[in-house]
Design goal:
Blueprint (H helix, E strand, L loop, with lengths): L27 H14 L3 H54 L4 H6 L1
Length: 109
């Protein structure tokens, strides 16, 4: 018995790991554009959708990482400013202790 190898769909890998089936509702115009693009690229619509979702999530992850880094930097700056104010307050308290200032002078300024 001589069997011909079955032709696989364009873009479908010969071997692939576990897959999950998802149902997605597309606007008819988007579905038609996806089919045309898949045919032009000789790829399956499924492969294009997987690539698009992966690219979107990769970009979203980068943006989230950037936001986390920005927040960490802002928190570090806030801690530095807070520490600086604390030190300045301590220095002023110390100077007040060394050089007593008349309460009348303090309220006048």
């Amino acid at each position: 018995m001589n069997q011909q190898p079955t032709k696989r769909s364009p873009g479908r890998p010969a071997e692939f790991g576990p897959r999950v089936t998802k149902a997605v509702r597309l606007d008819p115009e988007l579905d038609e554009a996806l089919k045309l693009h898949a045919a032009e690229c000789d790829l399956s619509a499924n492969l294009l959708i997987n690539r698009a979702i992966k690219a979107y999530l990769d970009e979203a992850t980068v943006r989230l990482d950037d936001k986390v880094e920005q927040r960490v930097a802002l928190e570090a700056s806030a801690r530095q400013v807070s520490m600086s104010l604390l030190v300045n307050h301590a220095v002023l308290d110390y100077l007040d202790h060394l050089i007593p200032v008349d309460d009348q002078l303090r309220t006048a300024s």
